Amino acid sequence: MTARLALFAVLAGVVAGAGAQSADELRRFYDDGRKVAAQFVQQLGGELRREMEATGPLRSIIVCKFSGPEVASSLSRMTGWRVSRVSLRTRNPALGQPDAWEHRVLVEFDQRVQRGEKAEAMEFGEVVKEPGGTYFRYIKPLVVEKLCLNCHGPAEGLSATVRERLALDYPFDKAIGYSLGQVRGAVTVKRPL
Ligand code: HEC
Question: Cα Rg for the chain, rounded, in angstroms?
Answer without folding.
Answer: 17
